[in-house]
Design goal:
Chain lengths: ~425, ~400
């Protein structure tokens, strides 16, 4: 592999935040979405939440690609506040405040202010605006800073939007709280294993509250009564972290578990925390564990292992790489959307295994091999034009893997790899 | 307060992108956050044009902003020029460089000196005051000024169309109708259709024609520039309806000194006669169903109004244009607020406006006269609204609406 073409990239050991992640190509064509897009896509699934995009004409105009005219209902309204040239210089707080109050008059009860690039650049302080509004109206207002220049990709639009909701949750009165102990499932983790875990918890008299893609802001208030958050989706991780900080609700994540050992340990932790017998773990994996072990032996016995790249944004690249190193593969280059808390947490584990792959942000997905080398001898996780026969998992399969949980995910991952290698 | 619920007004930067984005053999590089370009790509994809500019974005981060680093532009251009099909690069401003005051003109000059075989252009109408029309006007003008080369006139008489842009609905059908009519009436051929069907090679040859057909006012400046540089006269008109189209052809005939093919003209008029008379009759029988509301580009609403009211006999319910710069006493500018206050679901009559408004009112988009993010017709082969066939289409459409 000719590494000379990649000298503009940093390796994982050099990357501690988003700033260290360089683009693979010098010109993005046409680029990837901004986090405002994913913020809007997320909040449209939240019943009872209105939005106000604050930015320039482009942000406002194109945001309507996401927010359809039909999304405006009696309970929810979605507005754009466009800054004029004076506000770019002197600030837009007064205008934004008026806009929020107008939306409240129209019936909005919960409003998310989405700050885009220019308000982010001029240092507008949305928290101060929210405080001012609180003296004049009962409307609940939260904000997200979605300035695209502060990151490369769009993933923050999912995670920070959900995290901001933690500020909108109302603490319930004792009379409103569930009498039974409850656990929150945060994110969709596939049906089968999720349901099995739910049954095990039910047997132990523990209720499960599920929070997926579709949410109701009022129902979210119940999440505060839980003993534990089980995080199925990385998008919910910051939300869980906030609930831990603000309300001391612990969380255990399953979203970054891609190998048998990690999955088992996480489940054991869950069972221990909820005081459930560890023997019940068997109910979760039943027939799966022997098959997983069989696949492990089979793949480990293949002597000629190759390097791999991860091109898909769907999975968490660093923990997934650790699981693949355990199978004997070598990570060469990882597409990382955000150097978020999960990837950072797994960084040292990966480095300890003696690997230090390039980290990059791929904007031109159809031209990856052009930058890599002419004589490519590498596997790809995620689509990669030009080396289709070396793709272990395509983009759709990567999404499938990420949408599964625990043993189910590990088994599916190994099945895909085994089928390609055979 | 710039508060919008439905359709925020497009900016000058968007006008530049939409106009330049339809030009083949060119690349557009935006210095700024890359989210804008992917939306731009989607908008342009929805126009149905295949051969168009390649869109690139540098992206930008906090360090670039704090230290004024523009190296990303150099790196991106070095990569773009590897594609030998690209003959021109347009450097597009975005809101962040506009805020921090990056001098794209100076960068453009430096790059032009480095890449002499390419045309590299920067644009000024990306400021916070500039609106869609400013961007379109500057893009068309700069292309005519900087890309068109000194060239001999074609032996057989020819023409350019100036001002066909993808922000108007049926823009491809309208220019197809213009070309058909000019072929039929004068047997003359087009050289360049700026900008919806142009390549850089076409624009280079713009000076070789005998007349420039300007179909929207943003193109006048380019028409004047070409008149100065190549001594090519221009005619500015957007002909709707039979009378206006016939008058327009007669003026062109005078300018290019070719008589109109009378047989062609007569056939065209005969073809639409029944529908035209029928429409007039229906409007006179059903005046209450026949008021028309027009909201969109000034040249479009003015042209359709003339045909609908002066020729067919309709009454105007509301008429407004979408640009403050072009409003008149009779045709005011209406933004979202005015439109919301005046145009509601129970409004009588025919409405020809932007798709977003029609959708909101629960109407079909076949009467839309401009394009926006709700334009999802990829059909480049619809009937035109301009010219003789446009008149047939309008009359048929109105008759259907009146029943």
């Amino acid at each position: 592999m000719d590494k000379n073409r990649l000298t503009h990239l940093n390796t994982l050991s050099q990357v501690n935040n988003n700033k260290g992640i360089k683009f693979l190509h010098p010109a993005a064509s046409p680029g990837s979405h901004c986090p405002m897009h994913t913020t809007l896509a997320t909040l449209l699934n939240i019943k009872g939440l209105s939005s106000l995009v604050v930015g320039m004409a482009e942000c406002g105009y194109y945001s309507r690609f996401v927010v359809d005219y039909s999304n405006n209902t009696k309970e929810e309204c979605h507005y754009v506040y466009e800054l004029d040239s004076n506000e770019v210089v002197f600030g837009c707080s007064s205008g934004v405040k008026k806009a929020v109050l107008q939306m409240a008059e129209e019936g909005a009860k919960n409003i998310m202010i989405i700050m885009t690039c220019v308000p982010g650049l001029i240092g507008e302080d949305p928290q101060a605006i929210i405080e001012e509004i609180s003296y004049e109206s009962d409307v609940k207002v939260v904000f997200v800073d979605m300035a695209h220049f502060k990151r490369n990709g769009y993933k923050d639009g999912y995670s920070k939007t959900l995290a901001a909701l933690a500020d909108a949750i109302k603490v319930q009165k004792d009379s409103e709280k569930s009498k039974k102990p409850t656990v929150n499932f945060l994110g969709n983790g596939g049906e089968t294993e999720c349901n099995r875990l739910q049954s095990i918890l039910k047997e132990s008299e523990i209720d499960v509250l599920k929070y997926g893609v579709k949410l109701d802001i009022e129902e979210l208030n119940s999440s505060l009564g839980s003993q534990l958050n089980i995080v199925y989706s990385n998008n919910y991780l910051e939300f869980a972290e906030k609930l831990k900080e603000k309300y001391e609700i612990p969380y255990i994540s399953l979203c970054d578990a891609y190998d048998l050992d990690t999955v088992e340990k996480r489940y054991e932790k869950i069972f221990k925390h909820l005081d459930i017998s560890g023997e019940k773990l068997e109910n979760l994996y039943t027939e799966k564990k022997p098959r997983i072990e069989e696949f492990y032996q089979k793949i480990l016995s293949i002597k000629e292992k190759k390097s791999f790249i991860i091109t898909s944004p769907s999975t968490l690249a660093v923990p997934l790489s650790v699981s693949l190193i355990k199978l004997g593969f070598k990570p060469f280059m990882l597409h990382i959307e955000e150097m978020d808390m999960t990837n950072l947490k797994w960084k040292d584990k990966l480095l300890e295994l003696g690997e230090d792959p390039y980290v990059t942000y791929i904007t031109n997905k159809d031209k990856i091999t052009e930058v890599l080398d002419n004589e490519i001898d590498i596997y790809s996780l995620g689509n990669c034009n030009g080396i289709e026969e070396k793709v272990l998992l395509n983009d759709q399969e990567m999404i499938k893997i990420q949408n599964l949980t625990g043993f189910e995910r590990v088994l599916k991952l190994l099945e895909f790899i085994d089928s390609r290698l055979s | 307060m710039g508060l919008y619920k439905y359709t925020p007004e497009p900016s000058g930067r968007m006008g530049l992108l939409w106009t330049l984005g339809t030009i083949d053999e060119a690349a557009i590089l935006e210095f700024g956050s890359m989210g804008h370009m992917i939306y731009g790509e989607r908008f342009l994809k929805q126009t149905g044009i295949i051969n168009r500019s390649k869109l690139f974005s540098t992206h930008i981060d906090e360090k670039d902003i704090a230290l004024g680093i523009t190296k990303r532009i150099d790196n991106a251009i070095a990569k773009i020029v590897e594609d030998k099909k690209i003959k021109a690069i347009f450097l597009l401003p975005s809101s962040i460089p506009e805020t921090i005051g990056v001098d794209l003109d100076a960068i453009c000059e430096e790059l032009q000196a480095k890449y002499k075989d390419l045309k590299i252009l920067s644009f000024r109408r990306g400021g916070f005051h500039d609106k869609l029309n400013h961007g379109i006007e500057e893009a068309i003008f700069k292309l005519a000024k900087n890309i068109a080369l000194p060239i001999k006139k074609t032996e057989k008489k020819s023409f350019n169309i100036i001002g066909s842009c993808c922000d108007l609905s049926r823009y491809r059908s309208d220019v197809r109708e213009i070309k058909r009519m000019l072929k039929g009436a004068f047997d003359i051929n087009p050289i360049c259709t700026l900008s919806s069907e142009a390549s850089i090679s076409d624009i280079e040859k713009m000076g070789s024609t005998h007349i420039n057909i300007v179909i929207r006012r943003e193109g006048i400046k380019a028409g004047e520039e070409l008149a100065d540089r190549f001594n090519t006269p221009y005619i500015y008109c957007r002909p709707y309806g039979y009378n206006e189209t016939e008058k327009w052809l007669k003026e062109i005939s005078k300018i290019i000194d070719i008589p109109i093919n009378k047989e062609f003209l007569q056939n065209e008029l005969n073809e639409g006669k029944y529908g035209y008379n029928y429409c007039k009759q229906i409007v006179s029988f059903r005046p209450l169903k026949g008021p028309i509301t027009l909201s969109g580009h000034i040249d479009v609403v003015e042209g359709i109004k003339k045909f609908a009211c002066d020729d067919i006999g309709m009454k105007i319910k509301h008429i407004s244009c979408d640009s403050k710069a072009y409003e008149t006493d009779k045709i005011p500018y209406w933004g979202e607020k005015e439109i919301m206050n005046n145009i509601s679901r129970d409004l009588d009559g025919i409405i020809m406006a932007q798709p977003m408004l029609l959708k909101r009112l629960g109407r079909l988009c076949n009467t839309s006269i401009s394009r926006d993010i709700y334009s999802r017709s990829f059909n480049l082969y619809e009937s035109p609204f301009i010219g003789f066939r446009g008149a047939i289409k309008l009359c048929s459409m109105w008759i259907e609406e009146l029943f």
